[in-house]
Amino acid sequence: MDSWQQATLALQLLAIDPGLGGVTIRARSGPVRDALLRLADPDAKRIHPAISDEALFGGLDLSATLTTGHLVQEQGLLATPGPMILAMAERAPVRLAAHLAVALDKGAGHTLIALDEGGEPDEAVDAKLAERLAFHIELSNISLHEISTIPPGSAGQRPTAPPGGRFQRDASARALPYVPPDIIGQITRIAADLGIDSLRAPLFALRAAKAHAILNDRDRVTAEDVEIACARTLAHRATRIPEPAPQEPEAPPPDQMENQNTDDTLDIPDELLLDAVRALLPDNLLDRLAAQKARAGRGSGTGAARKGNRRGRPLPSRAGRLSDGARIDIIGTLRAAAPWQKIRRNATGQDGLQIRPADIRVKRFEEKSDRLLIFTVDASGSAALTRLAEAKGAVELLLAQAYARRDHVALVAFRGAEAELLLPPTRSLVQTKRRLAGLPGGGGTPLAAGMITAFEQAQHAQRRGLTPTIAILTDGRANIALDGTADRKQAATDAQQVAKALRANGVDAIVIDTGNRPEPTLRNLAQTLDAAYLPLPRADAHRLSQSVATALGD
Amino acid sequence: MTPFPFSAIVGQEEMKRAMILTAIDASIGGVLVFGDRGTGKSTAVRALAALLPPIRAIRHCPVNSAKAADVPDWANLKTRRAHEVPTPVVDLPLGATEDRVTGALDIERALTKGEKAFQPGLLAKANRGYLYIDEVNLLEDHIVDLLLDVAQSGENVVEREGLSIRHPARFVLVGSGNPEEGELRPQLLDRFGLSVEVTSPKDIDTRVQVIKRRDAFENDNAAFMLRWQAEDAAIRDRILKARKSLAKLKTPDKTLNDVAELCLALGSDGLRGELTLLKAARAYAAWRDDTALTRAHIRDVAPMALRHRLRRDPLDEAGSGTRVARTVEDVLG
Fold first, then answer.
1. Nearest-by-Cβ selection for A131 from B37, B111, B219
2. Among A59, A144, A488, which Cα is nearest to B108's?
3. Which residue of B lies nearest to A326 if distances are taken between CA atoms?
4. Known catalytic residue at B227
5. For position B283, what pLDDT does the model report?
6. Which structural domains are found in chain B, ordered by start?
7. Set B46, B80, B214, B272: catalytic member
8. Rounded mean pLDDT of chain A?
9. What is the ipTM of this complex?
10. Which residues of A are less than 8 Å from B181 in CB distance?
């Protein structure tokens, strides 16, 4: 079954049982996707990521109330159950995803078709939302030509398009299909084999199997239903590729198998079901897992740039409604109203300024969260001998750049047995320079301790809405472990462990190797950190600062 | 649809225990449930409402006052008669605006009748009940600040749009969230009395059981509810009984010592840890129908009362729960 048939099947099952939540369709907009959406419910409501809460939940329509003089309530989209289509779903903010997730959880008959146009693997529908949608379909690899050759029987098999609610009544009016008792256990086992932790997945599989049986007018769930349901609902959630089970030493004699088939239970070997799912496992499973991991921990919502209507750098104002928190742009509003004054005066016969709700312009601001550069400088004996002075010079140059961009700067130095926060986050260039110049060298290299101090600062900064970046300048010969003992091996493991914690928390980092020769352990460390690695064996301060500026991305 | 019954939730014993303890003694101060997606966090919280015994409140009172004298003036109630209402469980949705949370000028009345009236918000509705925040770690900062203040003082003060109003807002905070999506500020963490971490069950039989119950709940709702509502009622009776016996429970000095020693060894900030641990252990003892507080009670509730009060160690991948368990082993033996 190709992805087009999968897609139409998913829509059919969804129409039969809204409890399946919905489907994410990953494809760029194009004729194929349009063709599919034509098959969806024509009454489906279209929503977009920037939809306001009032539009979703309803409320007082302030501008209409003001113009008409009596109370105008508007009804939200979520008030009536039915299918919704969320365009550009990968751009839906966390808040919208959470609202929709709650709506889907309530089981009031809402279904959601999320159109995911994400280009990169890490651009995807919010995990919270995707979790509550039973199906996932990739449409990117089929052409319009292919779908037109599919016999109308399969694609057009949509049950004659009744709007949202009626399907549900259909399904409950018809007796639910009988589910053989061991099926539930089997579905659960398969989900576990695929490494799916959430218990929603097997529930979806079970529902999908029943819906598929209804679709085919059967009064009991058959092996085919289960197979298709598992493949459609479980494959895209898999977090590991199941091991093929060891071959059974001896197949049971055929007559015994037939006996089993005749009695009440369905006898599908687990292996067969797993095969069905495995056939649908995405090729890029590992890439996707990596992307998911990379995204995890960055969802706190404090991104680099936030658009809002409260503070920050002003953006052009926009036509809008006077909803909560919006600030009116008076000049913009007057300008929008100006051309109409004469006509309006003639029409109403009233003097004075006449402003209609449609004229209202709302201010918008873009708030850039400030960046914090945390310099973590190795001031140990080995570094002091070789490059400490150069590193200092480079940091000074970077400071000048940071000053120009109004970045915040913090300075952490590590030497001897411990790390020290020389300068808490500040914008004062003079102070930073003074502290840096007075930085003495000598002693061991407690790399892990330095990273932990930097990490603490980074977390602190994140909480205050800054975007921290840690720049580690070291020659990488970590020889002091976290507990302060001089143990080279333990020191290296500790450093790796801190690096993992840093990455898990989504802190950006740059590793600058100031050793005479590039140090492979530092390269590893940078990989663990998911950081840029800059080996600068014979660099002067200028080149160093240039490289860092490039790695920082502006 | 009626929520899934509490007693029908398979496994997740710690989460269930924590919720029952707050139902026995509201002054413990709420539960924080952190865990992966699809582990039944929201199901459990929504099921909690059915467990709570009803309260007596003045009819139509916006803040659910218990006595006629406590009804605020701005409510403009003519008759003040008490009746029995279910304990309020109020949902605080993400993205709720400040007006919605604290209450604001009643625009409807202002526009239609030209009156300046106060429209109470969610905090008023949650008074004497529960305030539930799903995805609490995604809550916007200004709402968090507001909640922290009110949860501390037990009073909501509204000074806006020419209104100046204060009303009681004492509620039990219940939050749930997925730690992968963001951390909670330590100040907010501290406001939760108990915290539990839930993971999805690893053993197949339990998982099958979960699916079976959920399936039965959806297919044959009436029969399923009939079966489990009786169990819910049994838990509710036991909660009521435990509330009564809580007063008579003896607390030996030796256990107080244990509590203090444990918190010292863990280095939890402030005295709130000790107090909560003690209250939770007492509620637990009452729930178990024991007459005196013992070490065993403390040992059982220590992880949920203390795990969110430790300083976070970025290198500790096992989580602070294990750290508490280890220290409990060391201190209490």
1. B37
2. A59
3. B97
4. no
5. 92
6. 6-198 (3.40.50.300), 253-332 (1.10.8.80)
7. B272
8. 73
9. 0.80
10. 94, 128, 299-300
A199/B207 Cβ within 8 A = yes
| B98 to chain A, closest Cα gap in Å | 9
- CB within 8 Å: A452 and B315: yes
Contact: A501, B111; criterion CB under 8 Å: no
What is the residue extent of each domain of chain A? 1-53+73-156, 176-242+261-295, 309-367, 371-552
Topology agreement, domain A1-53+73-156 and domain A371-552? yes
For B85-111, how does the pLDDT look when each residue is reduced to its tens digit (9 = 90+)?
A: 888 888 888 777 777 888 887 777 776
pLDDT digits (tens, 9 = 90+) for B124-144: 888 888 888 888 887 877 788
Give tens-digit pLDDT for A375-408.
Answer: 888 887 776 666 677 777 777 777 777 777 777 8
Q: Which two tokens stand for residue A545?
A: 């600062």
Q: Which residue is closest to B312 within chain A, CA to CA?
A: A456
State whether A128 and B181 contact (CB < 8 Å).
Answer: yes
- Contact assessment for residue B131 and residue B26, using Cβ atoms and an 8 Å cutoff: no
Kindly report the backbone phi and psi dihedral angles of residue B111, in degrees, each rounded to the nearest multiple of 5, phi listed first. -80, -40
Does pTM surpass 0.80?
A: no
Rounded to a whole number, what is the distance in Å from the CA of A390 to chain B's nearest CA? 32
Candidates 1.10.8, 1.10.150, 1.10.357, 1.20.120; correct CATH number of A176-242+261-295? 1.10.8
Query: DSSP secondary-structure letter at A297?
Result: T
Q: pLDDT digits over A187-231, tens only?
A: 888 888 888 888 888 888 888 888 888 888 888 888 888 888 888
For residue A459, the one-letter residue type is: Q
Residue A202: closest C-alpha in chain B = B211
Please report residues of A whose CB lies closer than 8 A to that of B37: 127-128, 131, 197-198, 200
Please state which CATH class domain A1-53+73-156 belongs to. alpha beta
Nearest-by-Cβ selection for A128 from B37, B200, B317? B37
Q: Is the pLDDT confidence value at A294 over 60? A: no
Cβ neighbour number for residue A402 with a 10 Å cutoff:
22
- Strands across the sheet containing A361-368: A305-308, A361-368, A313-319
**Chain B nearest CA to A197, separation (Å):** 6
Amino acid, res. B185: R
Residue of A122, A131, A74 whose CA lies nearest to A97: A131
Look at chain A and count its residues: 554
Q: Which chain B residue has the Cα nearest residue A19?
A: B218
Q: Could you tell me which of B65, B101, B97, B99 has the C-alpha nearest to residue B83?
A: B65
Q: Please provide the CATH number assigned to the domain covering A371-552.
A: 3.40.50.410
- What is the per-residue pLDDT across B176-190, written as a single tens digit (0 to 9) for each? 888 777 677 777 888
On chain A, the residues whose CB falls within 8 A of the CB of B40 are 199
